[in-house]
Each structure stands twice: as structure tokens, then as C-alpha cells.
TrEMBL record:
Protein name per Swiss-Prot or TrEMBL: Uncharacterized protein
InterPro entries xref list: Papain-like_cys_pep_sf
Length: 191
């Protein structure tokens, strides 16, 4: 299944890589929802780390990135839900955000499956609805758009790591392993 995300990527010379990365990210969301009962809100540090581990297992170059994120708030001119201190109008939500970057065909893409849970938490806990154009999974070469802004800030990595260290290695391995198994089963079925 080629999603709308992939159809927006320009000059796709190897669409299978894009489809595979997107499918891995969606499978990771499913596994997280099974383990955390539908809402792993506040788990960007875990999701970015696990996705990077999974993509590296498949031989792709990826890394966990921590920094700031701004999400455009629905029905406002220029207000954002902000993770990290960003010089934009809006609501300060948290100290940082973590996502993943992957290299495909020598180009770096942001891939952020945790955005689905950010959107749910913003609505549930802050009564903030973000712009409808913000997807549940960002997969883009663009870090800075009108509707979202990703800004790497390595000084925030220690905050992300402090939360990641609270998660047991067994739990992290479970998430990574289940996602890899799901992918491998789908590959076997397709062969």
C-alpha cells in the first residue's frame, strides 16, 4: 500500500525504501499501542530511540534526534504548541521532543511516528487541536514548514536520555523485537 506520504515525495528513485520505512514506522505504532494500551503519550524519547534501532537493524543509516518542535494550532494565524523554547507565539507544552532521522538515497528524512500521540495528548490534556494538515506520521525532508518545525538541539539530549534510562532494557528490546518480527512475517508472507 503506497500512502499519501509516499506520493508526496519528489523524484522517488527507490520507492520500496520509502514504503519500507513508512511501514516499519506504522508497525512500531501498532506494537506500542498493544503494549501501552493505545496511548504512549509522552514517549517520544522511547519511540525515536526504538525506530532508530529498528532501521539500523535493516541496514539503514538512522539516528535518534532531540530538539524542539512546534506544531501549528488549528484556527490560529501564527500560534504553535511548543516543545522546547522557541521564538514563536503559542503554548509551551514541554521541554523537548525526540524523533528519528533516516538516510535514503543519500538524503536525510525526518520520520516521527510519535506525532500521533502528541496530537492526542494535546487535545486530551491541553484542549489544543493542531492543524488538520499535520499527519500522524511525519516523513519528510523538510524540517521547517508552516504547520510543523523541527529544530535539533543537542543540549536537550540529556533530558531525553534521562527518561529513556527509566525504561527497562527488556521493554525496549521487546518493542524492537516485536516490530522486527512483524516486519519479517510480512516479508515472508509477501514472498
Amino acid at each position: 500500500m503506497i500512502s499519501k506520504l509516499n506520493s508526496k515525495l519528489p523524484n522517488v528513485s527507490n520507492s520500496l525504501e520509502y514504503e519500507r520505512v513508512e511501514k516499519i514506522s506504522l508497525d512500531l505504532q501498532e506494537i506500542l499501542e498493544e503494549i501501552y494500551y493505545k496511548s504512549p503519550a509522552g514517549g517520544c524519547y522511547l519511540i525515536g530511540h526504538c525506530l532508530s534501532e529498528i532501521l539500523n537493524e535493516y541496514g539503514l543509516v538512522s539516528r535518534k534526534v532531540t530538539g524542539k518542535l512546534a506544531l501549528h494550532i488549528k484556527n490560529t494565524n501564527d500560534k504553535y504548541a511548543k516543545y522546547g523554547i522557541i521564538n514563536l507565539k503559542g503554548h509551551y507544552i514541554g521541554n523537548y521532543h525526540t524523533w528519528c532521522e533516516v538516510v535514503i538515497n543519500n538524503e536525510t528524512y525526518i520520520i516521527d511516528p510519535s506525532l500521533k500521540y502528541n496530537k492526542l495528548a494535546l487535545k486530551q490534556y491541553f484542549d489544543i487541536k493542531v492543524n488538520n494538515k499535520i499527519p500522524n506520521l511525519v516523513f519528510s525532508k523538510k524540517a521547517n514548514t508552516y504547520i510543523y518545525k523541527y529544530i535539533e538541539d543537542i543540549s536537550l539530549e540529556c533530558q531525553s536520555m534521562s527518561f529513556l534510562k527509566r525504561i527497562s532494557t527488556c521493554r525496549i528490546n521487546e518493542i524492537v523485537t516485536k516490530t522486527l518480527e512483524k516486519q519479517n512475517n510480512e516479508i515472508r508472507k509477501a514472498s
